[in-house]
Amino acid sequence: MSDPLLEAAESLLPGDGIEGLYLHVPFCRKRCSYCAFHSQALPQDDQLLDDYALALSNRVRRLSKAGLLGDLRTIYLGGGTPSFLGARRLSGLIYMISLRVNLHDDTEFTLELNPDSFDRALLKDLWALGVNRYSVGVQSFDDAVLKRLGRIHDANKALDAIDMLRERDANFSVDLICGIPGQSMASWEESLQRVIDLGVPHVSVYPLSMEEGTPFAHAVESGTMPLPDDDLAADMMLLAHDMLQDAGLHHYEVASYARPGFESRHNLSYWKGAQYLGLGSSAASMLRKANLEALLDSGILAVEGDGAALDGIGAHDSLRLVCQQDATSIARSLGDVPMLVDLEHLDLRSSVIEQIMLRMRLFEALDPAWLPVLDAAVPKLLETLETLRREGLLDERFVPTGRGWLLGNRIYGSIWDLA
Ligand code: SF4
Q1: Residue 300 lies in a domain
Q2: H, E, C per residue of 61-85
Q3: pLDDT tens across 179-194, in order?
Q4: Is 334 inside any structural domain?
């Protein structure tokens, strides 16, 4: 008799290869006041940036030698601020990638950039080396809001970066943040109108989240800044939804809007359960056992703690890895010693439940033909979905409604509780 969990996993999980490569660049010129991402502020001529970029290049070379990059469909340089590495270091790193990865016309290669560290000369080099998608950290087109966020650039600098990308007819995305104390609805509306007028093909919209240890969190604790107003943030998210959808950018994920064909394929692979490998300080990976074993055997990764950590792991289980090394230790090793990772094991049942939850982020209906299999695999799944539907959070096809989108954590929490 077939195992419903295995059947469900096979229906939800993509193929066996590593489809996404993420490279983390943990450096910025200046830390923003709200940011909890893993990065440190350094002068741009710091030797650590050279050594770190070289260490990442060496890791890519070793991965390729081990035959683990043959199925790549997307590459993403994120941070931190990858553009802060500058043309020389980025060229070296990307050249190594282009030598070692079989880049196809449809390989999506994204680089995150800060308008402060971006110019025509850098774009020309990146373009020539095969970077074909850019993610621009704009956050707002209102200088007062940018100042409050502690951003290093102003609105004009962001507009310059967007102009350069438009001149090349590039595929790019703009990040915007709402719900910032002091940000008015009129300021938010103006930022949304700007991305629409500029014809930006992809927009990510995030409500400000107060992260522990940031200058914003300290300001709230000391009473010098009010807490973000959740109701106002929800109204701003709704306005973004209405304006962007009306302008032809469809809402394809909780925080993401795109013109048809400009969806982020790299991020979609995360949400659709593809295997991806993250290199660099704090970078996360999601792999299955066979690929993890290959990475351990080739000495590219080492799991922290118990050497027998792979005992009892099934072929379809999901393995979430997070690199435990800081930038200095990665740079010092020049990428020649195994990258130390922390391992979290999601058994088959948890992996299937996580996939169902991720489908909710994408507003994707669960195939009705698969519902009985999923329900057999995860008892009480249908009952839970029905309850969420009765509460108005899911529609008839179990796709999140507008209310369900705003109260997404309630949906994800209820489904995750089944694990
Ligand atoms: S530039 Fe980006 S990564 Fe760097 S501190 Fe600001 S938000 Fe964080």
Answers
A1: no
A2: HHHHHCCCCCCCCEEEEEECCHHHH
A3: 999 999 999 999 999 9
A4: no
